[in-house]
Amino acid sequence: MTLLTSPQLRETIRTRLADETGRIAKQAPYTIALAYPSPYNAGMSSLGYLRIYRSLMESPGLACDRAFLDDVCMGSAVAPEHPITYEALRPIDAYPVIAFSVAYELELAGMIKMLEAAGIPPRREDRDGRHPFILAGGPLTFSNPTPLTGLVDGIVMGESEGIIVDIIEALRDAPSRNAQLDALAAMPNVCVPALHGERLAAIAAADNSLLPAWAPIRTPHAEFSNMFLIEAERGCSRACNYCVMRRSTNGGMRIAPMEKILGLIPDDAKRIGLVGAAVSDHPKIVQIVSTLADQGREVSLSSLRPDRLSDEFVGALKKGGYRTLTTAMDGPSERLREALERKARVRHLEKCAEMARKHQMDRLKLYLMIGLPGETDADIDECVAFTTELSRVVPIALGIAPFCSKRNTPLDKLPYAGIEVVNDRLDRLKRGLKGRADVRSTSAKWAWVEYVLAQGGAAEGLAVIEAVHNGGTFAAYKKAFKNLEAAPPRETTARRRHLAIASA
To answer: Does residue 419 sit in the same domain as residue 479?
Structure first.
């Protein structure tokens, strides 16, 4: 086989494989490439991606080899090397199916880079039966996967661990590309863009017998180093109106029994990650964390709600290795938190600060959004005053994200506040808290790109190809989206609004 990648990349892959624990060794008559459009460290910290890996590897006659976006090209204009799989060091274009797990909108660029580096046209219409079948699924399908419709051949909607085997078997058994498309189109939770356009299928819900998900592989090279990931619950019982995982999604919150969670954790796992949209709402979460901490294990939770934290809970977290107590403020003012249907109140956050100090945490970290609907400078000033009071109790860090409205939420279609507006509010917050809190924010510009894709469709997804070709910078995205003004009249108004907001 022709050497398509550098010796350095192959050596990196061999090193990472040698450091993995729990990898399933298997060869099968029908093997697909399971791809993650971000680097290895992110993909190997994705419980959903690793759950699909386990589903395929446990199915007779099927297997998957993993592939990831080249580390060096993430967030840069550097082109990746020809992608090869970890298990076989085989180019991804040599597989009959490439299945991508897509977590969020900006990963479309990683998918396009991987396809082009493999010599595969990223536009769906430019491919035929000579090319691998390109499948996509993942968290993005819970909100708006329509930007994928111009790029992929099939989209698996929602929780796919219960249906992925049937889908891959259907692809395997179909005698032609058209037969593959027809077979998938007959499935209730799969969108086939060539036949359905942007009309999406129903979101799949896994049978409760398949819960909780857990990751078979641990590695020191993951974002969560050497951590065993397992669900504590799935979904959410709350009604936060900006969130795609609110209680109306897939039957709300489904709880994994404590005994089942503890029984699935390997004896040699020293670091445990409890995953879910509302882990701290599990009725036995304090007992679970306490049990793991008493066993000498380090424990991490993906979400902590301030109204659920108690002295016993924070004490268990401290014993489980927590040094920073992290929870959500959500909005900069009490008025906006009420508008978001959040239960976090001033008294809850004040209590969190007191408990963080009592249990000798290094700091209290609070996540919040700015650029919310109806937000004013007065809301930012309230945040400054309140955070200043908290900083007198315990050191404070603020992690800030600009608000982006998402499909399938009550706040769908609300406009982006504007790059300058968000930056002005962020500057006001930083000035007010200088010397009192560590304030860090994600980019207002890239949040706008995320917003356009989150509210967009096939045209916006295809525009990402142009942006990638022009270096993948913000200016490249802005130009690519501006070129969509030549779209049909029914779509022009919304796109002009996006562009006007970007330069406002």
So the answer is: no
